[in-house]
């Protein structure tokens, strides 16, 4: 809210004429954009509206690979809309309504174009209901890999970055549009379903079980996930919140994966001393025993780990990385993919903090191991669309964080880590926002510092 202050005015001017009402302006309806306008991925997401929440009712049959769902999407128009796009890949939409009225829809590649019976004026809230179905698949990117729905012999899972959600529900698939997420997933009785947030009531009828999950804090679409199959699900509490850990029955109940994710609470508590209070309503972890998943992903409130991280040894460092994302990446989310160092640089730095905490090596020793022989040709703050998962983002990003610490000192640095997470909680940010926050914390201009450490292409001098 902005207040208008008038100097020397203690009350209304009795002699001033009554204001003349502005003539009403007729809406200027136009289609919403087919992309969110991301500089790296212009076709990702959509324009013209802001989603508040997704409420999904989905049924999946592993034997056939068929998925059928109804998505209820609540949103607000950010322009006068004559039509709008939803991202929906490899699935077919049936009946579509907007505010209960039948709407027309058509597929345009991986886009579902919806035309409501009447235009939607800017600022108006509206509800879209889409019936859809088919056999979901992954989205493949030549350099970034695949993301989305993967079928397994006893179920399936949906996972991936930067795209995945559109392979199993209609969505504005870009991190700039965060929304709440609720899922009711119906599967054959005897299978488990794990997803984001808090578990709801489970019900079984006619040989099928419906599992319910809800994430009440806004979530970026790539952080939504579902895992279906034969899992051991351990439910407890930690710090007064639910702790839910799921491991596939194909892995030993007391093996390296189980021991590693079993330390989730311990790691989260340590990170809270560095970053401030844990930002979500539940904790947890899911392990996948699938050769196609050689990565871990910070799926909101419950990270998912490929078992490759735990072969032959426990690995708590990866737990620290993905849990750090709950602050940096999940709660505080990048508004464009170019700024992903704000996710990965901080999560890599959290690994270094954890290793120092456990006595493995100091943060400065971790920095020195990378700094001496690093290739500085790719800038952290602008790595290019093919470089968003490269060393310039992870390792150089973490080095930039440590260099900032050495530049502004520990008191200002650790205060910044907490204030950044608190002030932007549940929101979206850009690199410019962090630079401004760092300069406020330091009490000085840091333009040259960030130009060298984030955007330069030569080795920066040590602070």
Written account of the structure:
By secondary structure, the chain is α+β, with helices and mostly antiparallel strands. Among the domains are: 165 residues, Sandwich (Immunoglobulin-like), CATH 2.60.40; 122 residues, Neutral Protease Domain 2 (Neutral Protease, domain 2, Orthogonal Bundle). It is 23% helix and 31% strand. Strands 2, 3, 5, 6, 9, 13, 15, 16 and 17 form a nine-stranded mixed beta sheet that branches.
Summarize model confidence as the mean pLDDT: 94
Total DSSP E strands: 25
The tally of helices reads 9
Pick out the low-confidence regions. Answer: 1-23
Structural class: alpha+beta
CATH class of the domain at 29-133 and 161-220: Mainly Beta
Q: According to CATH, what is the topology of the domain at 29-133 and 161-220? A: Immunoglobulin-like
Q: Major sheet: size, sense and barrel closure?
A: 9 strands, mixed
Portion in strands: 25-35%
Q: How far apart, in Å, are the first and last alpha carbons?
A: 40 Å
Overall geometric form: globular
Q: Which percent bin holds the helix content?
A: 10-25%
Radius of gyration: 24 Å
In the CATH hierarchy, the architecture of the domain at 29-133 and 161-220 is: Sandwich
The CATH superfamily of the domain at 29-133 and 161-220 is tricorn interacting facor f3 domain
């Amino acid at each position: 809210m902005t207040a208008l202050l008038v100097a020397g005015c203690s009350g209304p001017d009795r002699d001033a004429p009554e204001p003349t009402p502005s003539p009403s302006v007729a809406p200027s309806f136009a289609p919403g954009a087919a992309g969110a306008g991301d500089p790296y991925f212009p076709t990702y997401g959509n324009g013209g509206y802001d989603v508040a929440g997704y409420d999904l009712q989905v049924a999946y049959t592993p034997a056939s690979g068929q998925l059928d769902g109804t998505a209820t999407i609540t949103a607000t128009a950010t322009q006068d809309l004559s039509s709008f796009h939803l991202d929906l890949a490899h699935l077919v939409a049936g009946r579509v309504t907007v505010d209960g009225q039948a709407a027309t829809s058509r597929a345009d590649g991986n886009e579902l174009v919806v035309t409501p019976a009447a235009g939607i004026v800017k600022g108006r809230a509206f509800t879209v209901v889409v019936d859809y179905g088919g056999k979901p698949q992954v989205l493949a990117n030549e350099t970034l890999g695949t993301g989305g729905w993967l079928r397994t012999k006893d179920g399936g899972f949906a996972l991936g970055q930067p795209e995945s959600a559109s392979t199993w529900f209609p969505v504005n698939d870009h991190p700039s549009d965060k929304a709440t997420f609720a899922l009711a997933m119906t599967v054959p009785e005897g299978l488990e379903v794990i997803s984001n947030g808090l578990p709801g009531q489970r019900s079984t009828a006619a040989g099928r079980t419906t599992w319910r999950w809800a994430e009440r804090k806004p979530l970026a679409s790539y952080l939504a996930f579902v895992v279906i199959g034969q899992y051991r699900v351990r439910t407890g509490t930690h710090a007064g919140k639910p702790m839910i850990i799921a491991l596939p029955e194909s892995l030993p109940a007391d093996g390296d994966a189980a021991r590693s994710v079993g330390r989730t609470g311990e790691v989260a508590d340590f990170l809270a001393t560095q970053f401030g209070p844990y930002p979500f309503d539940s904790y947890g972890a899911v392990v996948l025993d699938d050769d196609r998943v050689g990565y871990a992903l910070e799926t909101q409130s419950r990270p998912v780990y490929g078992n490759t991280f735990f072969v032959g040894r426990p690995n708590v460092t990866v737990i620290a990385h993905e849990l750090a994302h709950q602050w940096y990446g999940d709660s505080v989310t990048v508004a464009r993919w170019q700024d992903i160092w704000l996710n990965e640089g901080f999560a890599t730095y959290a690994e270094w903090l954890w290793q120092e905490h456990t006595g493995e090596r100091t943060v400065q020793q971790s920095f020195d191991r990378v700094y001496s022989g690093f290739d500085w040709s790719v800038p952290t703050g602008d790595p290019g669309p093919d470089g968003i998962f490269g060393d310039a983002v992870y390792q150089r990003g973490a080095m930039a964080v440590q260099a900032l610490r050495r530049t502004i000192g520990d008191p200002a640095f650790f205060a910044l880590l907490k204030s950044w997470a608190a002030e932007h909680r549940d929101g979206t940010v850009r690199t410019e926002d962090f630079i401004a926050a760092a300069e406020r914390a330091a009490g000085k201009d840091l333009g040259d510092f960030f130009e060298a450490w984030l955007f330069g292409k030569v080795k920066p001098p040590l602070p």
